[in-house]
Structures are given as structure tokens and as C-alpha cells.
Amino acid sequence: MPASAVCTKPEDLVESLSSLDTSARLKALRDVKNQIIGNKTKKLSYIKLGAVPRVVEILASDTDIPLLVQSAAAVGSFACGTDAGVKAVLDSGVLPHLLRMLSNGNNKVVEASARSLKMIFQSTLAPKNDMFQGRRIDLILALLNSGNENVSEVAASVLARCCETSEHQKALADAGCLQSLVFLLSGSPKRKEAALDALAALTRGNPDTSAALAATGAVSTIIRTMKDKSPRARLLACMCLSNIGRACHNNYQQEWDIRKSILSTVGKLIDENGQVGEEAPGVLADLVANNEELQKTAFDFNIIERLAEAQCSIAMALGHESEGVRIAACACIKSISRSVKNLRTTLTDERLVWPLFRLLNDPSPAVQASALSAVSNVVLDFTPHKAVFFQCGGVSQLIQLALSMEPMLRLNAVWALRNLLYLADMSVKEKVMRELTVSTLVDLVCDSEEMVQEQALAFVRNLVYGSVASVQQIFAADAAILHAVERQLCVATRPEICTQALYVLSNVAAGNEYHKDAVMDFVAPALTGDRSVSILIKFLLDMSNPQLRVAAVWCISNLSFPESPGVGTRVARLRDAGIQLQLQKMFDDPCTDVKDRVKTTMEQFLCTDQMTSNTGQSVSCRLHPSAALTLSHSSWRSVLAARRKLYCCSNGAANRDAKVKLRAAPWSCGVVGSTMIIYLGGLHVPLSYSGLSIVSTMLSSDCGLDPQVKAISLVVLQSAELCGAVWLIESSIRQFDTRLTCMSFDQMLSGRRGCLLAAVIALSSVILSALAKPGTSVYLENNHYDPALKELLASGGVSLCATVAVCCGITPLLEEFVYRGFVLTSLAAYASPPWAIITSSLIFSLVHFKAPEETLWRDQLVSLAHLVMTEQPRAEVGKAALWRAGDTVGHQRCVAYVEGLGCLLLLCSQLLHKEGKNKRTY
């Protein structure tokens, strides 16, 4: 080889690293470093040849400055960009030598060593905990105050990578790291970015360090950095401010303005290329988490559209090779599926559902857990998704995951099974139980993890909701599931577990006599000798959790349903167990749901004792995934719910005639007649269609009003009558304690005294209306309204819309609300169904009695058929709207005096059937 030839073979260079000649070693170091920079293949080749230990040996033993600089730089080159290189330099024991070089007197050696540390700590393999041993971290902190900007920048970058736990954050803050980093914010752009990176790491999820940073006065500087030219600096400034904002709450308006600025800045950074664009969505997610206002603001800034454009489709993400991307895709589906609209539209595409279900077999437990969370929402109360889930064998996979050793997988799998059974029909329940088996379900109910126990009991709750056949499933295998539920009630301490178990018993108690007796044997065992105390007392006395008390009272309510054959014995046993005494103490419970349910249950106890009226029905409480079943008594919901649930076919085996059961109305018996008299005399006659009404004066031909003014006034008056009826009926709802004195408002409007008082009030209202319009006839000509209404309809525009809204919308809704929702429901709760239907239909037909040539009986039969054959409240409102539309376009209107006859007939019916006389049981 000629003397001028250069040694370029890797083997020769590696050998030269061990040469005794200093210049040869220096030259070999330079050549190796230059060859591996940017060349991963060469780097791996030199690692295999054992070059890294020889380079580290030079760094550890030599004292020559050029050798130290080149060896430290070569170490950094090996560690840059590849985990294999980082592993090789760490295995060679380079870390102590690099740290020792940080205290070297030569700035070049210190800078080269610091850069190598930066390369190492950019990898996930970096020994971050080792940096907090001894005085190693002090060396890095000392470099922050270095006059060399490159060195201080590298030190800040290393600190940012080292700071991962709250202990690390506290140690660095206590060492004065925050003040040094704040000082670096005024340096060069690179040093500023490194300082912001370290500050973001120090304050992430740590209120103490965030508050300490805010106290340094650096917030204004960081806010100004959000307008920096560097996208990286802007992103890091947003990170710091977001961390500080979560920890510190000063001036709300100022904080809100800053958050909006952060949101706007991060939204624009999503469009950036490279690492900034990749990290911006994560910053955005942290910023808007659990903040609905910021989420809406992000929507207004069109950030969602930017995210959608930047990302691939969810279906593609579900099959991505990256585990993190698959997890994020599942989380995205979980969020989208919280909307019922999305479940029925966006997520109906099988191209999205099938890949999600396939992820249940993913090799990564983290992906499986995320997929289970999404599946729980997707299969909830939507039959097409359930069908697809069965087709792809999803039930079997869920059951396998429910038996996993990973608690999170078990929890999410049982949760998905629970939602799969929500509102499911019997065939779905049978399919699931055939694969799950009773023994597996019992094991899940008694699982070692409390959250798994809760979801397993919720699964059982949905399993036994519904028909008698559904309830019967809990008695399979010698009632093993029921016994497991009872054991949990005895030993569990977590309130959520006890709540679910109580609702299971409540649903079972809604079954037949055998099911009720099985529950009774547990909650109030029939013991001889000493009086037994029910386990339900413990939950009724628990004031820490109102849902426990609600569930316990539901169970008692279903056990004391008056129409079941064995109710007398059960009520006696419950009373002996101390249940009734405890319920009497709960009339003033702070929870409204508990108070309402207690009052209904106590009425059932009283009804059972007297055997005179039907005041309740067993109610099966199904579990909604987000909340337990509650009971509300607002007027609209009370009236419409009572009307909607008026007819309920019995599912008991003994009731083969499918006789009618009627739910208790939320009005006491005495207020129905008085309420109707006040309504007709105080609202309907003065405001609506009668000779004395405001509407009559307004629609007369000589009133001088513009048709559009008439139409709008008509809307206002009818709306006022509707609102008045709502308030009047709401005031009659049973919200008063039965122990109030006789001077209470409730009793002043009850019974005979209430009816007479109401009659006086109504008569006074009619007299005042007559005095206000002297000379007006009580009778209204049959053709009075037709010309006026035709004029309003022909006026077009606002007049037409308003008239149609009144005649086909507001008035039918008012009639449905008052005559069927209130009157029929109330009568049905205190009288036999035939009598209630006939009486209500008589009142309705009398009020709508039309022309003399149309007989009363014809309208009576039409109204009776209308009430009996109608099944849905919405259909009733629609039919009433059509009826009213027919009146509007040409039929003749009613006569005012028949309303008084209707009130009189209702009053007679009320007095005849007052306090449950002539009761008939069905």
C-alpha cells in the first residue's frame, strides 16, 4: 500500500482506536464519527465491530483535550437517532464518564459531553432515574447558568427529558431550577425553546410547580412567546400556559381570554408540518378536557375540521400498525358514539363497526381495553349493531375477555355485556346466557375487583328487567345468581355495588308471586319468636348516598303492590320488620326522589290495609347506562306519563284474562272535580270559546282589529289558557305531607268542601265576565266563528300560520292535557276502568257538543270509541288536531252552557265515588 493511502476499512479503523499513537487514535475517532453521521447502516456496522467500548475507553482514560472532544462527540453520534446506538453506549457504561466531563475545565469538552447527553436522553431507553442519584442532577443544574448558550440549552433539554414523575418535578423545583429556566427565556431562540420545553415538563399535571412558576412573574413573558416566529416556541408556550391555567384560578375573565388565545394558537399549529403539527392535537386535547365552554369555542374556531383534514379516516386508523393509533381510533369512536344521532347515522357503516369488533382479538391488552370501551357504547340500545355483533362472534369474545386476568379487560368486557342487554329482548338474553353460563356470572358477581362486581350486578339488573320469563332466569341452577346477589348485599361496602344489587331485587320483586316471595325471604325472613329486622333498614338509614335509599324504597314498593294476591302477608311481614316505621320517618327526606317514592309506597301500605282502592303498580326498574331510574312529579311529565301508562297488560301467570291494571295518578281524589270547575269557570269560559269570552269579543265583526292582530291575540290567549291549565294541575299534585292540618291548601281543595269552594270561585269569575260585557248573551250562535276563522285563514301570512297553530296545535294539546291526560287518568285511578272511560268521554262529548241536529249520543259514541281505541298520546293529539282542523274549515262550534253540564256531571261522579266507595278490583 502506498504511504499516502488512507485506511478506510471499518475493521482497520476500529483497530486504530486502540493504537498507542495519540494522533492515530484521534484520526480514527474523526473518521468513525464522520462515517456514522446520518448513516444508520454504517452505525450498526461499527456497533457490531465493537467500536463503542473503545470510544468510551478513550473518553474514560485519556486526558488529551482533542481526544476527549472527539470521543464525546462520537458517543453522541452513535446515540443519535437509533435505540440500538443508545443501548450500545449505555451498555458500555458511558454515563458516569459523560457526567464527569461536565465539570472539565475546557468548554469544548463540556459542550461535546452535554450534547452527547442530550442525544441519549432523547431516547426512551435513557436512564432518567439514574440522573437523580447522588449529585448528578446538580451538575446539569449548574450548566443552566453557564455563560455558553449552547451548554445551557443542552442542559435545559436534558432536564426536560429527565422530568417524568411528580418526585422529579419536586426535586428540580426545590433545587431552584424554575428560576434558572425563567432566566433562559430571554436568550436565543434555541435556548428559549429548550427552557419552555423544560418548564412545560416541570408543570405538567403538577399544581404546586405550576403555581410556583406563576409566582415568578414569567406568565407575561410566556404569553408574549405565543406570538413568536418559531412554531415550536409557540406550541411550548401554549403547553406551559395550559398547565398553569389548570392549577391557578385568578381573574376568570383574564383566564378565559388567555385560554381562548391558547386555543386559537394551537388550532393554527395543527396545520404545521413535522413534530409541531404532530404534538399540537395532544396539547389541544389537554386544554379542552372536561371544559365544555372551550370545546364549543374550539368548534367555533373550526378546529374540528382542521383535525379531520389532518387525520386519516377512522376505519383506516383502526387497522393502523401503530398501537397508539389504534387506541386513539377506538377512543374517537367511543366519543362519537355518545350521541344517539351518530349511533343511528355515522356508525351504521359496517366498514367501521366490523374493524372495531375485530380489535377485541388484538394482541395488545391496551388496544383491547380501548376497543371494549367503544363497543360498550356501540351496542347500546341499537338493534342493527347488536345483530352485527352476534354475527361476528362478539359475545364469545366478550365472555373470554371477561375471564381475563387483567382487571381492566374484565371490567370493560362485563360493561359491554351489560350494555348489550340494555332493553334487549328475550332472545338476546337467552343467547348471551347460553354462552356466559350461570356459574361464570356468579364468579363475576363475586369478583375480587369491586368495579367488576358493580358492572356484573348491573348486567344482572338488565337481565331480569322486563317479563316474567326474564325474571325467571335468575332462578336457574337453584337460584345461584340470586344467592350471589344477596351475599353481595350482606358483605359489600361500596355503595354503588349495593345500589345495583337492590335494583336487581326490585326487578325480581316486579315478577309473579313466586318471585316476590323469594325476595321477601331475604329482605324480611319469616322467623318465629323474636321480631326480625330487615336488611333494607340499613340502606334506608344510609344518608350518605340517596341512590341507596331510592333503590331500597323501589324494592319495598314493588313488594307491596296492592293488586298481587299475597300482598297482605308481605305488607304484614315488612311492617313487623320495621319497614313501615322507618318509611314514616322519611317523609321529609332531603332527596326528592326518595320522598316521592316513600309517599307512593306508604299509600300502597294503606291501600293494602283498607283494600279499597288501587294506588300503585309494581314497576320494573331497568338500568340506563348513565343513571339510575328516578321518579319526577312535574305537571307535564306526571300528566303525560300517567296517560301513557294507563293501560298495562298483566304478565302474571295467574291473570290469564289480561285484565287492566291502572297506575296511581299523582293527584289526590278530592281535587279532580274542584280543579276542573276552576279550569272551566276561571280559564276556559273567560278566555276561550264562549259568549262571555275575550276571544268572542275579539273575533266579532265590529271589534275593528286587523286580522293579523286577531290571529296573534288568539295565539296569546290560547297559550295563556294552556299555561294556566298546567299551573292549575301542577298545584293539585300530591306534594304535601298527609299529616298536615285541615287548614292546608291540599285539604281546602279536597272533597265536598273543595268542590263547593271551587264552584264559588268559578261562578264569581263568570259573573265578573258578564258584568264586564253587559248585554252579551251566554249563548253563542252556531255559525258565529266560521266567518271570523275563515277571514283569518284567508288573510294569509302571519294570520294563516297563527290560526292554524291555534286550531291544529295549541288547542288539541290543551284538550289532550286536560280531558284525557288529567280527567281520565284521575278517574281511572279511583274508579273502575269502564266507569272512568264512560265518564270522561261524556265530559269530552258534552264540551264538544255541536249543533242541535247532532244528537248527544252520537258525539258520546264517537268520543268513547276515540278514547278506548287510542293507544299512543301522540296519536291522540294528532287526531284531535284533525278534529279541530275540521271545525276550523267549516263545522259549527259548541254551545257554552254545555260546559257547565260537563262540570256538574264530573262533580256528581266525584261525590259518588269519593274516597274509594263502590270499588271494584281488576
Feature tags:
922 residues; mainly alpha; Leucine-rich Repeat Variant; two-stranded antiparallel sheet; 2 strands; disordered N terminus; disordered C terminus; repeat; transmembrane; ARMC8/Vid28; membrane
Please give a structural write-up.
The protein is mostly helical and 922 residues long. Among the domains are: 10-247, Leucine-rich Repeat Variant (Alpha Horseshoe), CATH 1.25.10; 671-916, no CATH class. Strands 1-2 form a two-stranded antiparallel ribbon.
What portion of residues is helical?
Answer: 55-70%
Question: What number is the mean pLDDT?
Answer: 73
Label the overall shape: elongated
Content-based structural category: mainly alpha
Which helices and strands, and how do they pair?
Layout: H1 10-16, H2 22-36, H3 40-48, H4 51-61, H5 65-79, H6 83-91, H7 94-101, H8 107-121, H9 136-144, H10 149-162, H11 166-174, H12 177-184, H13 189-203, H14 207-215, H15 219-225, H16 231-247, H17 252-269, H18 274-288, H19 292-300, H20 303-310, H21 314-318, H22 323-336, H23 340-344, H24 350-358, H25 365-378, H26 383-391, H27 394-402, H28 407-420, H29 426-436, H30 438-445, H31 450-463, H32 468-472, H33 476-491, H34 495-509, H35 513-523, H36 536-540, H37 546-559, H38 567-576, H39 579-584, H40 592-610, H41 635-644, E1 648-649, E2 660-661, H42 671-687, H43 694-699, H44 707-731, H45 745-748, H46 751-772, H47 785-794, H48 797-830, H49 833-847, H50 856-869, H51 873-889, H52 897-912
Antiparallel strand pairs: 1-2
Helix pairs in contact: 1-2, 2-5, 4-5, 5-6, 5-8, 7-8, 8-10, 9-10, 10-13, 12-13, 13-16, 14-16, 15-16, 16-17, 16-18, 17-18, 22-25, 25-28, 27-28, 28-31, 30-33, 31-34, 33-34, 34-35, 34-37, 37-40, 41-48, 42-44, 42-46, 42-52, 44-48, 47-48, 48-49, 48-51, 49-50, 49-52
